[in-house]
Amino acid sequence: MFNWALFFILIGLCIPGVLFVIPVTKNIYKFIKVSLPTAKKLPSRKLFIIISTVQTLILISLAAAFGVAASNQTNLHAPFLEALVSGKIAWDALQPQILPSLVVGIAGAVIFLMVYYGVCRPRLDKKTIQCMESLRMSSGIWGRVLYGGIVEEVLSRWGLMMFFVWVGTFFGGPSPFILWAAIIISGLLFGLGHLPAYLSFGCKKTPAFMISMLGLNLWASIIFGWLFWHYGLCAAMIAHALFHLVWYPFDVYFAEK
Fold first, then answer.
1. Is residue 41 pLDDT above 80, yes or no?
2. Among 178, 183, 175, CA closest to 221
3. Model's pTM, two decimal places?
4. What pLDDT is stored for residue 76 in this prediction?
């Protein structure tokens, strides 16, 4: 039986994140409008924002619905949210997820930042660095925590990763091999999904940029995917939010230089 309460709570959790990244959509619109040839026309900024927001909400709804429908078959769950909507003691479901999320999330973020600032960023051109960091900063800390930590996890883990594990059940069930394949494939798609926003904001499509985007997002996806597999969706959400909390002060520091 389809768990409608879980479906609606997933969408409800995503709405604040969608609203907090509207400034990012405004900045992308402004950049595209300036960059487009005069012969091409954009819709009004208001319509552009509405279309972008509605599109995101549709994708969230599809991911939430599929995840709810396929959860039992794939054995991937959101224990805390499921306990919450079923009237069980939610703390008992959340408690086992907290320590792994903190330890793995913070350790993964530290490695991520070491690679980004030590290896990737020095190899990017100045314009791409400025565009990337300006776009991230325009969403603010709450946009990054709520959109990244919740919306992207519903889309990428609850939706994409769940889909590939579900496909794998037709070839022998959710084995470790299938789960790792799902983590890697969804991670690569997660990285590709970031490209349009950055490219539309002026980043140069260089090999260094492409490798950095795909490689770093794949690393993050391995962290979040593993936590989702072993502890549940909220573990991935907590770790993803921690990534941005740890990263944000560095972006602030370099933005002020």
1. no
2. 183
3. 0.94
4. 97
